[in-house]
Amino acid sequence: MEPLTDRQIRSSFVNCTKGEASRLKLPLDFAELPWQDLDFLGWVDPGAPLRAHLVVAREDGPLGITLRVPATSRTSAVKSSLCQICLTGHASSGVTLLAAPLAGTRGREGNTVGIYICSDLACSLYIRGRRRPRLRAGRQEESLTQEERIVRTTSNLDAFLAKVTAG
Fold first, then answer.
1. Hey, CA dihedral for 110, 115, 120, 123, is it positive or negative?
2. Among 127, 142, 2, CA closest to 58
3. Cβ-count burial of 106 within 10 angstroms (0-12 exposed, 13-18 middle, 19+ buried)?
4. Which pLDDT tens digits describe the chain residue by residue (167 residues)?
5. What 3 state SS string does the chain have?
6. pTM of the entire structure?
7. 157 closest CA partner among 36, 47, 46, 39
8. What are the residue ranges spanned by the domains of the chain?
9. How many CB atoms lie under 10 A from the CB of residue 34?
10. CB contact at 8 A, 97 and 115
């Protein structure tokens, strides 16, 4: 992913108001982001920890969405969970159900779509081996190449974004 500016990021959001986009806080490590290893930029807002943001580079410009983070972590008997974007297995606390308001009128009416995703939104780093999940059980290796995992991740993300932006 090519580096994005603050202005590009803030103007990319399709499911929040311009005011909300102007008030969001960028990642604390924004200046040091490993852009070459990112397929998308995702972070939990350091100024509003119940909000997360995701920005994807597209041919026609970046596309950003805002997501709601649950106020409480889930307390289930599940020992591990799978991210629906990158298919990385995590201890149950490593995957979170995030809800994205739909773009447009349907979102203003309160309609959302949810997805289970890596809690730190670092899918790109997991599929490249730059970050390791904290699994209690052993990690299962895949037979896919890194490039195939990247394609799968971007396809899964595109499918989710299509749900958020569908008119």
1. negative
2. 2
3. middle
4. 999 999 999 999 999 999 999 999 999 999 999 999 999 999 999 999 999 999 999 999 999 999 999 887 555 555 678 999 999 998 878 999 999 999 999 999 999 999 999 999 999 999 999 998 876 544 567 889 999 999 999 999 999 999 999 96
5. CCCCCHHHHHHCECCCCHHHHHHCCCCCCHHHCCHHHCCCEEEECCCCCCEEEEEECCCCCCEEEEEECCCCCCCCCCCEEECCCCCCEEEHHHEEEEEEECCCHHHHCCCEEEEEEECCCCHHHHHCCCCCCCCCCCCCCCCCCHHHHHHHHHHHHHHHHHHHHCC
6. 0.90
7. 39
8. 6-165
9. 12
10. yes
State both tokens at 135: 């699994």
Q: List CB contacts of 119: < 8 A, sequence separation 6 or more.
A: 90, 93, 94, 95, 96
Location of structure tokens 């008997």:
77
Q: How far, in Å, CA of 15 to CA of 33, rounded?
A: 24
> Residue 96 carries which side chain, given as an amino acid letter?
T
Q: 41-68 burial, b if ≥16 CB within 10 A, otherwise e?
A: bbbbbeeeeebbbbbbbeeeebbbbbbe
